[in-house]
Specification:
Blueprint: H1 6-18, H2 20-26, E1 31-43, E2 50-55, E3 64-67, E4 71-78, E5 86-89, E6 114-120, E7 126-132, E8 144-149, E9 164-172, H3 177-185, E10 195-198, E11 207-210, E12 215-222, E13 229-233, E14 238-243, E15 246-247, E16 252-253, E17 255-258, E18 263-269, E19 276-283, E20 291-298, H4 317-326, E21 353-360, E22 363-364, E23 367-368, E24 371-372, E25 375-377, H5 384-390, E26 397-398, E27 411-413, E28 415-420, E29 424-431, E30 437-441, E31 446-453, E32 471-472, E33 474-477, E34 481-488, E35 493-499, H6 502-506, E36 510-516
Parallel strand pairs: 1-4, 3-8, 9-12, 11-20, 21-29, 25-27, 26-28, 28-36
Antiparallel strand pairs: 1-2, 4-6, 5-7, 7-8, 9-10, 12-18, 13-17, 13-19, 14-15, 14-16, 14-18, 19-20, 21-24, 22-23, 29-34, 30-33, 30-35, 31-32, 31-34, 35-36
Helix pairs in contact: 1-2
Protein name: L-ascorbate oxidase
Signal peptide: 1-27
GO molecular function, one term: oxidoreductase activity
């Protein structure tokens, strides 16, 4: 619920007492208030009753709609029987990693308690999503879409669509999330998913209605756990317009690969004879192909569209690589501000540091684990950011993961990489495994400058796109391949770098990047929120005086 009445004004005064500094910084930007109750409930996504995680009795959870620079005040009541956190994939939490909602930044909400997230969609537009970050809860639901619209005075490089639809696509297991967690805790790998969902529904379980001749925006996010997906619309093409906060060159595709954690916006024009058409989603790079469908329903439909369902790519890597390379930044379009996106020449900024990150799937102490540069992450008893703020020793050490792979024996460690505020880094993700990887970095958008098969070397830079590579927050790395990104370290905080393959993340394929400055200025980082929950070795401490 968005607030604008007297009750909302009283709430605003209350929250101003909780976090006075960011509210002062935010100035007159609007506030949107949400109250969410998280519960277990029965869901039937694949026709079998399961225990799902609901938000306000909804699966998937409620849509968040905001405008650039809006303040989001989200009060989350945890009615589950275990601690819970939500994270906001793609929202950059500028200067405020305390609100990121992952285990390394934020104390969990205990059962029966609540916590109010106080965030701002600062200088952002685009398509994002939220999800539960702890305890493999994501396998039970609790996720939903986020759309951040441009301010009215900012030009958008396409006419307003007739409607703006969200399509949350993902693989799904019939097993309870606690059973899946037990499998992983036992040191075993998860099996193959049981099916695919579109907006929490199985085959033909969800319908999008369109009017003939109108154009619609579809925001597509892969919220699944294990597999890359391909989406296509029977009899229709898609015009790509936005990727994770970046306006793109408006290329037309007949089908689109969406890797784990990624978001795309496409325009679809209802320009075909009036029938019900299939929206088909299928798995990529899997020996067994799962698929599902939703319905694109013309308002004056004469029934089911004739003809077969459109086929899609299955195991072809080159096809996907070429499509990924074709996605380009729109240099002349405005982003969240009126100046053109291309006014920032990312390819001309000198790189100050190169970081190479290699994933692996080691066995440690007889159990399946996953690692980055031979380190398999284990969570400490206190969030890293909270321990850092209070200078609590013994929780983590900076420098516990190397800048380059050693290819040595893997080991368990609370891995934190140090980095300096305002450095400009090149990060190379190196994948020597036979499965596609999907990597996400909290707190940042980055430019994808290159991806190719084989091993990366310094000579690989000769093929980099230093002009119009797309800026995004989640990127794929193909089997036995590499992907390179450029990223300005302009956001102080403790930021999660993780696999979006949820079993791999859960079993250690992640670490934290501590972007640090000696400055204590509020221009660089906000202090801990007044209402922050404190746990572990920080329990019993005070947050700070008002």
């Amino acid at each position: 619920m968005a607030g604008g009445n007297g009750a909302a004004a009283r709430l605003l005064l209350y929250f101003a007492g909780l976090l006075i500094v960011p509210l002062l910084v935010a100035g007159d930007d609007p506030y949107r208030f949400f109250t969410w109750t998280v519960t277990y409930g029965d869901i039937y996504p694949l026709g079998v009753k399961q225990q799902g995680i609901l938000i306000n009795n909804q699966f998937p959870g409620p849509q968040i709609e905001a405008v650039t620079n809006d303040n989001l005040i989200i009060n989350v009541f945890n009615k589950l029987n275990e601690p819970f956190l939500l994270s906001w994939s793609g929202l950059q939490q500028r200067r405020n990693s305390f609100e990121d909602g992952v285990a390394g930044t934020t104390c969990p909400i205990p059962p029966g308690a609540n916590f109010t997230y106080i965030m701002q969609a600062k200088d952002q537009i685009g398509t994002y999503y939220y999800f539960p970050s702890l305890a493999f809860h994501k396998a039970a639901g609790g996720f939903g879409g986020i759309r951040v619209l441009s301010r009215p005075q900012i030009p958008v490089p396409f006419p307003p669509p007739a409607a703006d639809y969200t399509a949350l696509i993902g693989d799904w297991y019939r097993a309870n999330h606690t059973d899946l967690r037990y499998v992983l805790d036992s040191g075993k790998a998860l099996g193959f998913p049981d099916g695919l969902l579109i907006n929490g529904r199985g085959p033909n379980g969800y319908t999008f209605t369109v009017q003939p001749g109108k154009t619609y925006r579809f925001r597509i996010t892969n919220v699944g756990l294990a597999t890359s997906l391909n989406i296509r619309f029977q009899g229709h093409t898609m015009k790509l317009v936005e990727v994770e906060g970046s306006h793109t060159m408006q290329t037309t595709y007949s089908s689109l690969d969406v890797h784990l954690g990624q978001s795309y916006s496409v325009l679809l024009t209802a320009d075909q004879p009036a029938f019900d058409y299939a929206i088909v989603v299928s798995t990529r790079f899997t020996t067994r192909i799962l698929s599902t469908t939703a319905v694109l329903h013309y308002a004056n439909s004469a029934g089911k569209a004739p003809g077969p369902l459109p086929g899609g790519p299955t195991i072809q890597i080159d096809w996907s690589l070429n499509q990924a390379r074709s996605i380009r930044w729109n240099l002349t379009a405005s982003g969240p501000r009126p100046n053109p996106q291309g006014s920032y020449h990312y390819g001309l900024v000198p790189v100050t540091r190169t970081i190479r990150l290699a994933n692996s799937a080691p066995t440690i102490n007889g159990k399946q684990r996953y690692a980055v540069n031979s380190v398999s992450y284990v969570s400490p008893d206190t969030p890293l950011k909270v321990a850092d703020y209070y200078k609590i020793g013994g929780v983590f050490s900076v420098g516990t993961i190397a800048d380059n792979p050693s290819y040595g024996g893997a080991y368990l460690q609370t891995s934190v990489m140090g980095a300096s505020y305002r450095d400009y880094v090149e990060i190379v993700f190196e994948n020597s495994e036979d499965v596609v990887q999907s990597w996400h970095i909290d707190g940042y958008a980055f430019w994808v400058v290159g991806m190719d098969g084989g091993k990366w070397s310094a000579a690989s830079r000769q093929g980099y796109n230093l002009r119009d590579g797309v800026s995004r927050y989640t990127v794929q790395v193909y089997p036995r391949s590499w992907t390179a990104i450029y990223m300005p370290l302009d956001n102080v905080g403790m930021w999660n770098v993780r696999s979006e393959s949820w079993a791999r993340q859960y079993l250690g394929q992640q670490f934290y990047l501590r972007v640090w400055t000696p400055s204590t200025s509020l221009r660089d980082e906000f202090p801990i929120p007044k209402n922050a929950l404190l746990c572990g070795r920080a329990a019993g401490r005070r947050t700070r005086p008002l």
